[in-house]
Amino acid sequence: MTAGVREQPRDAGRPRPVARLGPAGWLTALVLLTGVGYRLWLLAHATPPTNSDEATMGLAALHIARGEDFPVWFYGQQYMGTLEAYLAAPVFALAGGPSLVGLRLPTLALYAVFLLLAWRLTLRLTGDRWFGLLVVALLALGSDRIVKNQLIAGGGYPEMNASGVALAVLAVDLASGRPGRRLARWAAWGFLAGLMLWVDPLVLPYVVATGAVLVGFRWRELRGAAGALLGAAAVLGAAPLLLHSLLNGRNPLHAVLAASGANATAGWAERLHGGLLLGPSLGMGFCDPGRCATWQLWWAPALPLLLALGAVTAWRALRPPAPQESAGSAGAAESGVSARVAAAVRLALVLAAVATVGAYTVSSSAGLTPVESSRYLSCLLISLPALLWPVWTVARDGLRQVADGRRGARTTLARSVAVVLLVATVGTAAHATWRAAQTAPATRAAEARHAELVGTLRQLGVRHVRAGYWTCNRLTFASAERVVCAVVDDDLRPGFDRYPAYRREVDEAAAPAWVAPAGSRLADVLDERQRAGNLDLVTIDGWRIYLPR
Q1: Which of 77, 291, 333, 545 is the most core-located residue (most Cβ within 10 A)?
Q2: What is d(CA 119, CA 130) in angstroms, rounded to the nearest whole number?
Q3: Are 71 and 82 in contact (CB under 8 A)?
Q4: With contact defined as beta carbons under 8 Å apart, do 337 and 330 qualify?
Q5: How far apart are CA 276 and CA 357, in angstroms?
Q6: Could you tell me the pTM of the whole model?
Q7: Measuring CA to CA, which residue among 371, 149, 360 is closest to residue 282?
Q8: Are 87 and 56 in contact, with CB atoms under 8 Å apart?
Q9: Residue 260's pLDDT is what?
Q10: Residue 333: what pLDDT?
């Protein structure tokens, strides 16, 4: 297979004119609009389902829009920056109040930026517009896990992929010596790197890998004004983190390690199963909502092979040109440098993917909560062009050899394997997307029931309630804080309140009500109190409201 991927395209790493899109370009634009339109349709159906964590970010955005609070971190913890809240706050201010749609419009915009930059990066690295179409088509699809990462404003995930791809595009331009606004590009790279350090450290492997490319190709330039500007911009991007750490004497790395499961215990068998088998298939969009069928796990053994093949082919293309090649014209020399930069960035993307999978696998989260924590692998989508490029070249060059009459057993086998792999990748992702879309009507109905709950509480004149964690902040956000909730566990003991002011207000209230999902353990406990004559019960579809007598 490697024999078919050693030859590099002459325009690899160099952009083609955008004015003449051609058939591949127009199809790419159509697919891009389809990907955004699919997610807009999901947004209109309140899909994927929201939760109290996303509502917490929404409450932060509401406080920012009102000028009441300007949080650095996600409420209730000392890590994960609140960039999504600051992006949604102007939407709330313009709309006159909070809403789930308003909270997710910025994340939808971030997805559109990610898709557009991923196409641009693919052209920079390969110069192949049809391959760019394939990459955009795959990223336009969206399984349940993928659209959750891209649309839910739960902290970090929607902006990481857009920023990671932007860092790679800037690295290609800067390392290849692309003229025009170079200082602005250096500043942009530094600012994004610092910003992601504040928002979520999961993207750090891509920051380090693309940064290494810049150092390797432009270390002399970095010794001057470019390096100083990059450093200053990085400090500016990470300013919220740095200032908070200096003022409070806290190390956010400790909180990140605790959240990753560093203080928990999980066996290595569970970690390897979650990190190397379930994780890649779920995290890269090949599984049904909440589960992976056995046939959908084929991507798990394919990923290491793609990583190895991508690394080998990129390393071979990265080798310095032969003396007779480097002695040619200035144009040829520039083309050679651009091709080497493209190979270096592809290698960086592969190594960043390896680091991401490795870090996730050694964490206890991979063993304890493999389905939900597979979101930690969302950045792997940034590496998709580097992973599939060798396979694409084998399929493409094999077809060309067949057309030229140079058909051999080795060529036929390599081409067949490559074509099957590409078709299986698109087909599996498309099936997972179809299964995710099927959940939209049920999610919309559940959101309507929750809206009925909020309306009923308002009609009953209820201002203060106690409820479970996954009910409280969602209820408070949906009511724009007209209903304030304090968290209790299933035994009615105080739970984890991310915003302590709500608990203080509820504790000071004369007679708070109780809210529980129908059929929950909390509802069973409250039903006993209701039968004892201490509470009055109001039932609506899916919810139970308990009013004190």
Answers
A1: 545
A2: 10
A3: yes
A4: no
A5: 7
A6: 0.90
A7: 371
A8: no
A9: 53
A10: 43
Point out the residues of the chain with pLDDT beneath 50: 1-19, 324-333, 402-404
Residue 288 is classified by DSSP as B
The predicted structure's pLDDT at residue 400: 56
Residue 477 in tokens:
């956000």
358 C-beta neighbours (distance < 10 Å), count: 13
* DSSP single-letter state for residue 291: B
Are 11 and 337 in contact by the 8 Å Cβ rule? The answer is no
- What's the pLDDT tens digit per position in 121-162? 999 999 999 999 999 999 999 999 999 999 999 888 999 999
DSSP 3-state of 173: helix
Distance CA 396, CA 134 (A): 13
The pLDDT of residue 21 is 73
CA dihedral 142, 144, 145, 148 (to 10 degrees): 90
Strand partners, 545: 515, 538
Each residue of 482-497: b (16+ CB within 10 Å) or e? ebbbbbbeeeeeebeb
- Residue 135 phi/psi, 5-degree rounding, is -65, -45
Residue labelled with tokens 């409820």: 467
Contacts of 540 (CB under 8 A, 6+ apart): 449, 452, 453, 456
Q: How far is CA 361 from CA 68, 280, 289, 310, in A?
A: 40, 10, 22, 21
Helix axes 52-66, 469-478, angle to 10 degrees: 40
CB atoms within 10 A of CB 388: 24
Contacting residues for 96 by C-beta, under 8 A, at least 6 apart: none
Name every residue whose Cβ is closer than 8 Å to that of residue 103 and which is 6 or more positions away in sequence. 54, 57, 58, 61, 84, 88, 91, 92, 153
Chain Cα centroid distance, residue 507: 38
- The Cα 342–Cα 344 span in angstroms is 5
Measured N-to-C along each axis, helices 83-95 and 100-126 cross at an angle, to the nearest 10 degrees, of 130
Letter for the amino acid at 129? R
What does the buried/exposed string (b/e) look like for 148-159 if buried means 16 or more CB atoms within 10 Å of the residue's CB? bbbbbbbbbbbb
Report yes or no: 296 and 279 within 8 Å, Cβ to Cβ.
no
> What pLDDT shows up at residue 253?
64
Is the peptide bond between 548 and the residue preceding it cis, with omega within 30 degrees of 0? no
Burial 163-196 (b: 16+ CB within 10 A, else e): bbbbbbbbbbbbbbebeeebeebbbbbbbbbbbb
Q: What is the DSSP letter of 490?
A: T
